[in-house]
Amino acid sequence: MKNILIPTDFSELATNAVDIGAQLARTTNSTLHILHVAPKKDKAEESQKKMDELLNSDMLKGINVKSVFLQEKLEGAIVKTARDIDVDIIVMGARGEKLSSRIVGSNTERVVRLAQRPVLVIKNKIEHFKIENIVFASSFYTEIRPVFPKIQEFAEFNDAKLHLLKVITPKNFETTTYTRKLMTDFADRNDLKNYTINIYNEESKDAGINKFAQEVNADLIAMTTHGRKGLSQVLLGSLTETVASESQIPVLSVKLPEKKSNNRILFPE
To answer: The UspA domain covers which part of the protein (predicted)?
Structure first.
């Protein structure tokens, strides 16, 4: 990990994300890029003053920090900056079931959906961000193969136990024998060492993921997202976004490779 991006609106929630990013930067010897995106009507002097105060705060002492100050339309600015800087991870704040204000607001959901880089969503202030138990909730189908190494690398760097989790619901039933073999083959294919296999029955996937994470005292939930847009997003929604909204522990989201659009989504064969 070399570059970490943290968007901020200078709120308490965003500052919590900066604190987590700073802890990650110290551990990985990474450069911290702090981004503020302001509408053109905002006073540049006021925003710059807040940025300077943040850069001079104790939490950032001893860290290589670069500020990115933009006055432009917010939409797409975070994703574009992440691409331009070639960051390894984006850290963003969120609150409850609603995500706060401009930067840590519904924009967090959009970044989770669209960013090609992993996104770490933070809800609360964490004094010591130590990752020992990670729940990786997934279908464990072949589509996750290209991006799982990012999650595996994060787990191995932190020397964390990876709890592989598949939630079975009444609407998406699979036999235990089939699911266990699917997950065992996945673990063997990726040469996992420090892990557990868990099959959890619940009425909904998001409820199962959050309940299991609480049961194992997880420090982080890791998931992949399809990053659906337009009609697909309206109809199918995003499990990752739902979990990120509901979970009180950090959620790491990694976007799956985009597939060709299916114009027959309303009438699948």
So the answer is: 1-123, 150-255
| C-beta separation of 36 from 51 below 8 A | yes
Residue-by-residue DSSP string for 147-185: THHHHHHHHHHTT-EEEEEEEEBTTB---HHHHHHHHHH
Domain that holds residue 90: 3-122
CB-based contact 253:240 (threshold 8 Å): yes
Q: What is the chain's alpha carbon radius of gyration, rounded to the nearest angstrom?
A: 19
pTM, whole model, 2 decimals? 0.86
Q: What is the CATH number for 216?
A: 3.40.50.620
Separation between Cα atoms, residue 39 and residue 75, nearest integer Å: 11
Domain boundary among 69, 103, 122: 122
* Identity at 180, one-letter amino acid code: R
- φ/ψ bin of 174: left (φ > 0), alpha (ψ from -120 to 50), beta (otherwise): beta
- Give residue-wise pLDDT tens across range 56-111: 999 999 999 999 988 776 668 888 999 999 999 999 987 644 434 444 445 777 78
